[in-house]
Task: inverse folding
């Protein structure tokens, strides 16, 4: 007898009196758990949705979404099996799919149970009881015994979430960059997930700014929001013009150099920059003006002696300078670079950063992400530190001068600052929320 039909028989037997009692006791236990955790208790009555609500109580909402989908798929397999002939190829395929889905469901459910045990501050061995046929007793204990209380409540989470929005917008000035990001979010099947929230700052012209933050802190999302590539609920004003509302005009004022260059190896340096000029410069530039701009940029980045060389034959440092020159060809007011020094040795990285410093000194705003900031920190004017808060949302933990950043975090090096805001499971100190709150308080108190 195949696996699906065996599962259907077990499911049918669960409708007996004893099975019904067990199901009711599980619902009663979930009702109590949901009530303690600030979840709406009636959700325990809804098939498929029960596991999602339980995952929310455990702080594992993404896992809950997975459980919801897997539960529906398992039911679909069960229904399909009813209409397939015994011992057929189709039945075998459905069996294999059902087993795979079932294993994925069990793994996700164990993760939710594990997290729920942590929320209720119980020992890890409770996971064994959750996986046994007496799990309904565990639900009842967690839901109704007075000694079983959660460490946090969904309502507290939502109250804190509401407080994370700030009305302390930076004032937009005629010159420089003003960033007022209320939030950047994405919607899922069940909820809205915030990627960024409450980031406000003003950067004056002629500034070279270091952007710090651990993995997942939202650095790339922040930059994409600033340049308008992924719009947020925000006002981004560059030299008096709104980047979002005047995007067609402002795209020439923003240069972005990604970590990986996008150049054809069979083209020469001159051809690469000529093509970039045709794409990046406004249409009212004639051929002579474009060539003049290309010559100027090649001279600025030391590319004139190698203008006839193929891109494939360039050294790592030369390729970096060329990729930066391609974006600088439009003479942007805001210049953003994602790890421009990656793969370069200390001397070459230093030379490249000094060139960026000279660009900032022309009255431009240069924002740089680098994983080795301390070797060039003397070239920067200010530091932006992004960090993930307790809700795993990218927040502003600090913005200010380099020396002010060291004093604020009590650290001597930028890499130490990153470690202080990284989560403990990422090898950091896990103090992100502390610094986020302290920075917001410093804005209020002046």
Result:
């Amino acid at each position: 007898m195949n696996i699906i039909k065996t599962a259907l028989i077990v499911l049918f037997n669960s409708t007996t009196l004893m099975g019904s009692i067990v199901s009711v006791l599980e619902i009663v236990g979930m009702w109590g758990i949901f009530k303690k955790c600030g979840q709406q208790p009636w959700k325990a009555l809804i098939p498929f949705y029960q596991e999602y609500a339980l995952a929310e109580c455990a702080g594992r909402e993404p896992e809950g979404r997975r459980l919801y989908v897997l539960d529906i798929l398992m039911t679909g397999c069960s229904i399909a099996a009813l209409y397939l002939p015994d011992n057929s190829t189709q039945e075998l395929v459905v069996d294999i799919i059902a087993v795979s889905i079932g294993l994925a469901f069990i793994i996700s459910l164990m993760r939710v149970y594990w997290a729920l045990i942590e929320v209720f501050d119980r020992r890890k061995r409770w996971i064994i009881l959750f996986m046994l046929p007496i799990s309904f007793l565990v639900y009842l204990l967690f839901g109704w015994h007075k000694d079983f209380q959660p460490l946090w409540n969904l309502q507290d989470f939502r109250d804190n979430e509401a407080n994370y929005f700030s009305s302390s917008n930076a004032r937009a000035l005629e010159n420089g960059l003003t960033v007022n990001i209320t939030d950047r979010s994405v919607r899922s099947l069940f909820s809205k997930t915030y990627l960024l929230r409450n980031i406000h700052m003003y950067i004056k012209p002629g500034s070279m700014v270091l952007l710090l933050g651990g993995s997942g802190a939202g650095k790339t999302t922040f930059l994409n929001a600033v340049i308008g590539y992924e719009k947020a609920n925000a006002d981004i004003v560059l030299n008096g013009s709104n980047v979002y509302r005047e995007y067609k005009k402002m795209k020439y004022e923003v240069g972005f150099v990604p970590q990986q260059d996008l150049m054809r190896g069979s083209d020469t340096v001159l051809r690469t920059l000529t093509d970039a000029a045709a794409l990046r410069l406004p249409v009212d530039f004639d051929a002579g003006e474009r060539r003049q701009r290309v010559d100027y940029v090649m001279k600025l980045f030391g590319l004139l002696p190698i203008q006839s060389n193929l891109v494939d034959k360039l050294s790592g440092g030369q390729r970096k300078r060329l990729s930066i020159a391609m974006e600088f060809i439009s003479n942007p007011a805001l210049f953003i670079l994602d790890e421009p020094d990656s793969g370069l040795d200390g001397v070459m990285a230093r030379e490249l950063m000094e060139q960026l410093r000279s660009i900032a000194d022309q009255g431009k705003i240069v924002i740089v992400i680098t994983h080795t900031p301390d070797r060039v920190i003397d070239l920067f004017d200010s530091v932006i530190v992004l960090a993930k808060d307790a809700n795993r949302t990218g927040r502003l933990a600090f913005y200010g001068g380099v020396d002010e950043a060291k004093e604020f975090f009590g650290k001597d090096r930028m890499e130490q600052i990153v470690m202080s805001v990284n989560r403990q499971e990422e090898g950091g100190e896990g103090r992100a929320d502390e610094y986020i709150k302290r920075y917001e308080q410093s804005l209020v108190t002046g």
The first helix runs from residue 3 to 13. Strands lie at 177-187, 192-203, 208-212, 233-238, 241-242, 254-257, 334-338, 365-369, 382-388, 394-401. The first strand starts at residue 177 and ends at 187.
